[in-house]
Amino acid sequence: QVQLVESGGGLVQPGGSLRLSCAASGSIFSINFMGWYRQAPGKERESVAVITPSGRTTYGDAVKGRFTLSRDNAKNTVYLQMNSLEPEDTAIYYCYSDVKEYYWSPTYLKRWGQGTRVIVSS
Question: What are the DSSP calls for 15-80, one per residue?
């Protein structure tokens, strides 16, 4: 079993900052890509950012220049630093990891956290 636990969400004023964390645990041999999606009320799920094992990142257009993604491979943890937050960033943020549970596992499987809520409001 693999579990992803998110933390760091909450209420913040426009222009403020939050840092989200997501730690993977359980049966893990290797993790490939890690990243975050978000879903705002009444809107479709949106890719926020993704990071490769070597640390190369890709960001969604809506957050580019404001959010920074990083990872600690030794801790199986990914971080999302969110700056200059806007009301439009209000959403539930879901982290994911592409996990190979064992050395003999044939493929990576995407595993999801339960989500952490971010509210940007004055």
Answer: T--EEEEEEEEES-SEEEEEEEEEE-TTS--EEEEEE-TT--EEE-TTTTTTEEEEEEGGGTEEEE
For 75, counting Cβ atoms within 10 Å of its Cβ (0-12 exposed, 13-18 middle, 19+ buried), the class is exposed
β-pair type (116-120, 10-12): parallel
At 47 the pLDDT is 97
pLDDT tier, 79 (very low <50, low <70, confident <90, very high otherwise): very high
- CA-to-CA separations, 69 to 16, 27, 122, in angstroms, rounded: 17, 24, 25
Q: Tokens representing 63?
A: 């957050």
How does pLDDT run across 33-60, given as a tens digit for each residue?
999 999 999 999 999 999 999 999 999 9
Q: Compute the chain's Rg from CA coordinates.
A: 14
